[in-house]
Amino acid sequence: MTGRLTFICCGSTDANRRGAFPRDEPLEPSAFAQAQKLAGRLPRADRIWHGPGLSAARTADALGLNGTAVEALRDQDFGNWAGRRLADLDPADLAAWVSDPATAPHGGESLHDLGRRVSGFLEESIGLSGHTLAITHASVIRAAVCEVLGAPASAFWRVDVEPLCLTCLTSDGRRWALRIAASR
């Protein structure tokens, strides 16, 4: 049994443009239009899932995909940092968060907590055959890449995920692998 999971990163929002931590907000109009252009180039899927937040649902809409909201695909909980710019944060709190994956000075979800949630999602999905499209957030995709590669939590900060990019994983029913495909 083989399965494929393609993550599609949500389109950009006002928080992306401002250099702020995301909150549940709609896509910028230009991101909606960019997603519409991508719609016709997506591979066929047996199932479509998206995070429950507004940006994931609106990205799915713009892509012309009628999917099911899946709680495990929600964005990282940034607690009281949601909507705030990096420049507005206490540098010591930010340094603690970046250097210690178990720390969540914002009162939200630590990187360890995010990693456990994403690991559970991957474990639950590993036995599925066919192709799944999952519209979600950069933080979820970063955590999934780290999990699949067996990389330490510190590698999270070295994974750059652009809005509307595709990240593909394949499964043989026992393990996930990162798939890097040629452009078409």
Q: What are the key terms here?
A:
184 residues; alpha/beta; Rossmann fold; six-stranded mixed sheet; 6 helices; 6 strands; globular
Please explain how this structure is put together:
- A 6-stranded mixed β-sheet has the order 3-2-4-1-5-6.
- It has helices at 14-18, 29-38, 54-62, 91-99, 111-125, 138-149; strands at 3-9, 47-50, 68-69, 130-136, 166-171, 176-179.
- It contains 6 helices and 6 strands.
- It is an alpha/beta fold and 184 residues long.
- The radius of gyration is 16 Å and the shape is globular.
- 33% of the residues are buried.
- Strand 2, helix 3 (54-62) and strand 3 (68-69) form a beta-alpha-beta unit.
- It has one domain: Rossmann fold (3-Layer(aba) Sandwich).
- It is 33% helix and 16% strand.
Series of secondary-structure elements, N-terminal to C-terminal = EHHEHEHHEHEE
Task: Please compute the radius of gyration using only Cα atoms.
Answer: 16 Å
Indicate the structural class.
alpha/beta
Largest sheet: 6 strands, mixed
Global mean pLDDT: 95
Distance between the termini: 26 Å
Strand ordering within the main sheet: 3-2-4-1-5-6
Q: What's the tally of helices?
A: 6
In CATH, what is the class?
Alpha Beta
**Overall body shape:** globular
- Helix proportion: 25-40%
| Fourth CATH level, the homologous superfamily | Phosphoglycerate mutase-like
CATH second-level architecture: 3-Layer(aba) Sandwich
Number of domains: 1
Q: How much of the sequence is in beta strands?
A: 15-25%
Kindly report the CATH topology.
Answer: Rossmann fold
